[in-house]
Amino acid sequence: MGNTYRQCLILQMLPREPLCTDTASLERRLREKGIEVHRRTIQRDLEELSRVFPIACNDNEKPYGWFWSINAEAIHLPQMNPITAFSFRMIEAFLHSVMPPAALKTLEPHFSEASNILDAVRAESFRSWPDKVKILSRTQPLKPPHIDAAILNTVYEGLMDGKRIQASYRKRGEEASTDYTINPLGIVLLDSVIYLVCTMRDYQRMEDVRQLALHRFLSATLLEKPGLVPEGFSMQGYIDSGAFTYLQGNQPMALEFLMEKSVATHLFETPLSEDQRITPHDELRVKVEATVLDTAQIRWWLLGFGEFVQVMKPEKLREAFGSRVKKMHSMYA
């Protein structure tokens, strides 16, 4: 294969500052693609490419690391078309609502290129589309907590490479931090918070899986030791088990409640469960029946409707709501 193809691959393999990669790593990755080349040749390629492209070398410590400048424009071959540019603008709008700024840093050159392409498009229809499409949330928006960019990069790298992480973590409400060896399993974005799903040390049972909020990490170092994955673990299975909904019981519950017709309209279009049933109850209300997980989330959802909802079953949930209503009444009486 020619020098041009090899150099194009090298450009693709270089990370953006502050990350970097050395010639030994590039040699290994090129070999994985079937290209046998000495690292001295790679070094000459890098020096030649640095005269044309905004790439640089960190020679402050060995092994020397090469990287794209943090302000380098993204290069697409072929060039990004207007439809793709519009898609990037929509992704940018959506991600900004659910992720802290540090997580978006690596995509900023692509967002910038997308904006430039849309600005250059003559058709008014393309230029105005980003102003015509908006994403909203019905929940109360909260400002995302700060996450250290270096910690975020380390966690993502450990997750992608399947390696362990040594981290200092401060639990909520505690002053002191604790050091953990972490086996990363996945990332979950929940509202404005990013959670790392993981196990600790050498634990690898399903019941050992934990959730750590990334903004509570004080430091993170990537280790060379491979991470451990519990047998049979899958992210979707873990989420479906109710891990992020604060389970209140081990079994699904047969939920039954009365709701004012005007409020229940959305449940006809977006049901609570596959077996949901809605039947008339009286002039103003309908009866809703559905089998759902017994979670804190379903309780918060029901309480959010206030006087427009009356829980009928299960009896234990009805009693819990009655007790809470009495406490609230005493607060406002």
Automatic annotation (TrEMBL):
Source lineage: Bacteria, Pseudomonadati, Thermodesulfobacteriota, Desulfobacteria, Desulfobacterales
Domain WCX: 259-328
Organism for this UniProt entry: Desulfobotulus mexicanus
Coiled-coil region: none
Protein name: WYL domain-containing protein
Residues covered by the WYL domain: 151-221
Xref: InterPro entries: CBASS_pafABC_assoc_protein, WCX_dom, WYL_dom
